[in-house]
Amino acid sequence: MAAPAVRVARTAATRARSLLATVQYTHPPNCPCHSNPNHHHHHKTPSLMNHVKRHLATPTDPSREKEYAFEMAASSIRFGPGSTKEVGMDFKNMGARRVCIVTDTNVAKLDAMKQAVEGLTREGIEFTVYDKVRTEPKDSSVKEAIAFAKPYKPDAFLAVGGGSVIDTAKLMNLYTVYPEADFLDFVNAPLGKGLPVVKRLLPLVAVPTTAGTGSETTGTAIFDLVSKKAKTGIAHRNLKPTLGICDPLNTRTMPSAVHASSGLDVLCHALESWTAIPYNERTPRPTNPINRPAYQGANPISDIFSLQALRSTVQYLPRAVHDPDDHEAQSNMLLAATLAGVGFGNAGVHLCHGMSYPISSQNPGYKHAGYDVDHPIIPHGVSVAVTAPAVFRFTAASNPDRHLAAAEAFGVDISNVKRESAGEVLGEAIAKFLVKLGDQPRGLKDLGFKAGDIDGLVEGTIPQKRVLMLAPNLSEELEAEKGELRKLLEESLEY
How far is residue 399's CA from residue 303's CA, in Å, rounded to a whole number? Predict the structure, then answer.
């Protein structure tokens, strides 16, 4: 008995070829040359069927394939006044026995460190303290910190301080787990190799003492790569802290100028992640999910965090700066920093941050009055905000409605504003906000830069591919991109 025939469903490509064959051979064209199979055209020109076969077999260019998914990752967050004292119990719950505490010389004297040390002592957890973190870290200061941590062989890290401290602790953790790695192995390409972090790192608890970076939520660590005259960093989800303890009591010691500069970082985190290209416009699509970048483009979840962080910053930052006793405003700014961290930690930032890195690293000698350090310093938030009015005038054409929503967060009545005016309106709103905040440099000139420094800043911005790829409206062709960056920096000399 013959076996029954098994029908196999035809693919779309097979059906298309069959249909074309039917059309071609049952209804031949009237042209004599095409109806004659021996005509010379048939020896040189492929048939319609062959054309379709070749088209269907054409390989796609993976580098041009757009993303189709986004991921959300953030540290666990505990928020509340007095929560720092719980950190010893947290490490005991994790099973940690040997903790490396990371801080700087200023924070080492503050109550946040006292609470952390007392918490570990109560639980009988062994610890050592590294208190030499550099504000605005350089690669050399990071390497010194790593060299301290490796021989101690901790089984967990505790970072108590601002973004510089938390970022340094992330890198100490990374290179303790990868003791044989070259320093540039994980550094963002093209300045480093940009290798993925495939190992699980040690537990890291971050206790922020400033309301700005949101580093307690993200897998990003930034430092100055001196040899390249540009800031860069390492970004991977595995770097994010295990727990961020956001205790509003710890930000009460910030001077007014530090409230301002750290708050401006929150402002730009929110604005840039809100206006970044959509996640499904980013290329290339990763061939493996482990290679999906931490900074992915705006997405429906990051949007919620970014827009709320923007609204809170506009409302509470001026109060926190102008009244040292306004603890409600200070607490809300710490929460805004964390919200913005979740937003930009997944959506990413773009032009303000991309240009801020060379602005900070090529500092002509500016020393911010609010920072007690022995070297010139342009605080990160200041270096970011100084280009913001020009940046959002430039990016608005990519999504006028989104830029108008941002302007509305600044209190602008947008009911009668034309969409083509979105950039001008938002840029003006940002500039007015910065001026009213007080004591802010009104452009690059106030930081000591001159028109002759612009080319160097452009060259320092170009390697920041990780963030520039998320910038709306920016050209992909190198010379055009340089021209656009040069114009933005020229417009940022003063506002």
Answer: 14
- Whether the pLDDT of residue 290 is over 90: the answer is no
Sequence length of the chain is 495
The CA-atom distances, in angstroms, between 96 and each of 74, 206, 363, 365 are 22, 15, 41, 43
Q: How much is the pTM?
A: 0.85
DSSP for 219-232, written as a single string: SEEEEEEGGGTEEE
Write down all domains in the chain, each with its CATH number in brackets: 76-246 (3.40.50.1970), 256-492 (1.20.1090.10)
Band (pLDDT 50/70/90 cuts) for residue 31 is very low
Write the pLDDT tens digit of every residue in 46-67: 454 554 444 455 556 777 899 9
- Pairing state between β 220-225 and 230-235: antiparallel
Going from the C-alpha of 482 to that of each of 233, 363, 459, the distances in angstroms are: 22, 20, 8
State residue 11's pLDDT score.
Answer: 53
**CB-based contact 267:313 (threshold 8 Å):** yes
Provide the token pair at 136: 């605005």
**Position 206: which residue type?**
A
CA torsion angle 256 259 260 266 (round to 10): -170
pLDDT at 300 over 90: yes
Alpha-carbon separation of residue 376 from 78, 115, 122, 370 (angstroms) = 35, 31, 40, 12
Q: CA–CA separation, 411 vs 185, rounded Å? A: 45
- pLDDT, tens digit, 9 for 90 and up, residues 203-225: 999 999 999 999 999 999 999 99
Nearest Cα neighbor of 271 from 340, 168, 169, 186 is 340
* Residue among 216, 221, 243 at smallest CA distance from 341: 216
Main-chain phi, psi angles of 88, to 5 degrees? -65, -45
C-beta of residue 186 within 8 angstroms of C-beta of residue 217: no
Please tell me the number of Cα atoms within 13 Å of 188 on its side-chain side. 26
Strands (E), 367-470: none
Q: Which residues contact 19 (CB under 8 A, 6 or more apart)?
A: none
Distance CA 125, CA 361 (A): 39
Sheet holding 98-102, edge to edge: 76-79, 243-246, 204-208, 156-161, 98-102, 126-130
What does the pLDDT look like over 83-128, one tens digit per residue? 999 999 999 999 999 999 999 999 999 999 999 999 999 999 999 9
| Cα-trace Rg, the chain | 27
Q: Where are the alpha helices (DSSP H) in 210-363?
A: 256-275, 300-322, 327-347, 351-361
